[in-house]
Write a structure and sequence with these properties.
- The protein contains six helices and two strands.
- A two-stranded antiparallel ribbon has the order 1-2.
- The chain is mainly alpha-helical and 126 residues long.
- The chain has two domains: 63 residues, Arc Repressor Mutant, subunit A, CATH 1.10.10.10; 51 residues, Diphtheria Toxin Repressor, domain 2.
- Helix 4 crosses helix 5.
Length: 126
């Protein structure tokens, strides 16, 4: 399965929710992303088939090792871009929204350059 922007968003959402609460359910994803239950159910099925998530008998959703790696990667990009935008004077709310829009499209080279730049000015660890 190719990992699309939509899949990255779902994995990152599950990761964020799992950091905020003990159990993640489909309804939590629906609320976080403002998607319908049927849409989330279809994508969760695809994520299970791809081996990116598991769902236990209580319908708790868990990231697999591969799913977690993708989610953590996207979360790191999101945090980096949010930090950069805030350091430029963008409000935190706008920075969060804009980071979500661009986090999927930047090359690793650009991300590494941004990390180095922010570290140089004390905004992030190298």
């Amino acid at each position: 399965m190719a990992v699309s922007e939509a899949i990255e968003n779902y994995l990152e959402t599950i990761y964020i929710l799992s950091k905020q609460q003990n159990e993640v359910h489909a309804v939590d994803i629906c609320g976080y992303l403002s998607y319908s239950r049927p849409t989330v159910s279809i994508v969760l099925g695809k994520l299970r088939e791809a081996g990116l998530v598991t769902v236990n008998e209580d319908n708790h959703i868990f990231l697999t090792q591969e799913g977690r790696a993708i989610a953590e990667h996207m979360f790191e990009r999101h945090e980096l871009l949010t930090t950069l935008l805030v350091s430029l004077g963008v409000s935190p709310e706008t920075a969060q929204r804009d980071a979500c829009k661009i986090e999927h499209d930047l090359s690793e080279e650009t991300i590494e350059a941004l990390k180095a730049h922010l570290a140089k000015f004390g905004h992030m660890k190298a």
